Each structure stands twice: as C-alpha cells, then as structure tokens.
Automatic annotation (TrEMBL):
A biological process term (GO) from this entry: methylation
Record has Transferase as a keyword: yes
Stored Gene3D superfamilies: Vaccinia Virus protein VP39
Organism expressing this protein natively: Streptomyces echinoruber
A GO cellular-component term linked to this record: plasma membrane
Alphabetical list of SUPFAM superfamilies matching this protein: S-adenosyl-L-methionine-dependent methyltransferases (SSF53335)
Lineage, highest ranks first: Bacteria, Bacillati, Actinomycetota, Actinomycetes, Kitasatosporales
Name of this protein: Class I SAM-dependent methyltransferase
GO molecular function, one term: methyltransferase activity
Entry keywords, A to Z: Methyltransferase, Transferase
InterPro entries xrefs: SAM-dependent_MTases_sf
Domain of life: Bacteria
C-alpha cells in the first residue's frame, strides 16, 4: 500500500486528545488505509465509535476523498467499559440515567476538530443497522464489541457490503492469548476473512490488521 500523507497536525493532536483506546501508530495505519480506500469513492464505515477518537481519522480521510465516513455505535459501551471493569471511564456515564452515553463526547470531539460534515453517525446496535444496509462500502473498520457474538455479527453484517478492492480493517487482533485483554474474537474474524480466500493481507501494525478484498462477496464468504 502506498504511504499516505499523514493527517494534518491539528487532527493528529485532536486524535491524541480524544478519549479512546487506539495508540497513535495504529491510528496512522488506520488513516493510511482510509485514505487508500477513499480512492474507491465509496463510504468508509466504522463499527465502534466510542468517543470519536478513531472516527476523526476516518473523517479526515473522507474529507480528502470527498466521501462520507459512517460510524455505528449504540453508545452504551462494550462489556469491558461498564462500571467495575478495567476500561470504564466514569466521565462517560449519563448522570441522570446512570448508564453510559458516549454520544455527547463523540459529538464534541468531531465538532472541535471541524469534521462534523464528513461523518454520519448511526446510533444503534450494529447487527440491527447492518440488516437495513444495502450500499457498497470502500472500507469496513471493525472495533466494536469483543465477544464472539458481537465480532461475528459485525463481520457477517458489514463485510458482505465491502466492495471488491475495498479494505477490511480489524482492531485488537491478538494471535497470542497472553497478549489479549478483552478476548480473541477479533483474531477469529481476522482468520475467518483470510481463510475465506477473498482477502489478502495489506499491513500489520501491532493489533491493527488491514486486508484487501480481492474477490467479490458471496453469501457464504461475507
Ligand atoms: C473499543 S470501543 C471503540 C473505540 C474507538 N474505535 C476508538 O478508537 O476510540 C467499542 C465500542 O463499540 C460499541 N459497541 C459494542 N458492541 C456494539 C454493538 N453490538 N452495536 C453497536 N455498538 C457496539 C461500544 O458501545 C463501544 O463504544
């Protein structure tokens, strides 16, 4: 994959300041993939918005290519982000309802970076939104729930919409169970994509994997 120009310094600074879990070197790899995928002229889709940290990079790539970044989240947090778990941030709890709500954080992140107009937020459960989706996508970035049930549903719901030549990006791929903190479900969908024969690996940046769809989707292969 050709090296894409990095995001402008102010967007990189906004990414680094935003709440979230993605380290900068993985963010740069995601951004490069999004810039490359944007050349297809199709929307770039993310599963797992959280507070918009990674969305900023998709939005910046979308702005460059004149496409739209789509980001799906119910904004109630994954299992490991709930109160009492390692990844919980009390700031993300709605004080009136007492449940997590990352949507206001996401909206502030995007607004402050001036990237709102390049993003459409899809607020809901990923499988429910995917079931309604029909348009082709240039990039599918999976960074949602880490249980097998969620990762499988994200893969089966969204990957069939990835255009030939489009990029599948999966975060938190840990081949060694000793390295993982939230389960190996992302690793299993990564293997599934490779074993389908419809993808070739483009890059590996720690736990971020980029695969290119080399074959059109079939119902079985996703
Ligand atoms: C690891 S965080 C995403 C981090 C974000 N991409 C970043 O880099 O900052 C996972 C997100 O997926 C969302 N999520 C988990 N399961 C989901 C589902 N089934 N449908 C929609 N969103 C889901 C959670 O609410 C959470 O915000």
């Amino acid at each position: 994959m050709p090296v894409a120009p990095p995001p402008p310094p102010e967007i990189l600074a906004a990414f680094e300041a935003a709440k979230g879990f993605m380290p900068t070197h993985e963010g740069l790899a995601l951004h490069a993939a999004a810039v490359e995928a944007g050349k297809l002229g199709l929307p770039l889709l993310e599963v797992g918005t959280y507070c918009g940290r990674s969305t900023l990079l998709l939005a910046e790539a979308a702005r460059r290519s004149g496409v739209t970044a789509l980001t799906v989240d119910h904004h109630r947090g994954s299992e490991e982000q709930q109160p009492g778990w390692d990844y919980h941030d009390p700031d993300t709890v709605d004080s009136e309802l007492g449940v997590m709500d990352t949507l206001p954080h996401f909206r502030r992140t995007l607004y402050r970076a001036g990237l709102e107009e390049h993003v459409v937020a899809l607020v809901g459960r990923s499988p429910q939104v995917a079931a309604l989706w029909t348009a082709p996508l240039g990039l599918v970035f999976i960074d949602g729930g880490h249980t097998d049930e969620h990762a499988r549903a994200d893969y089966e719901g969204w990957v069939p919409h990835l255009a030939e030549g489009g990029l599948l990006v999966i975060h938190d791929v840990f081949p060694d169970p000793q390295d993982e903190f939230t389960g190996q479900a992302p690793y299993r969908i990564y293997l599934r994509a490779l074993e389908s024969g419809a993808f070739t690996e483009v890059s590996v940046t720690d736990s971020l994997r980029v695969l290119r769809r080399t074959e059109a989707a079939t119902r079985e292969r996703g």
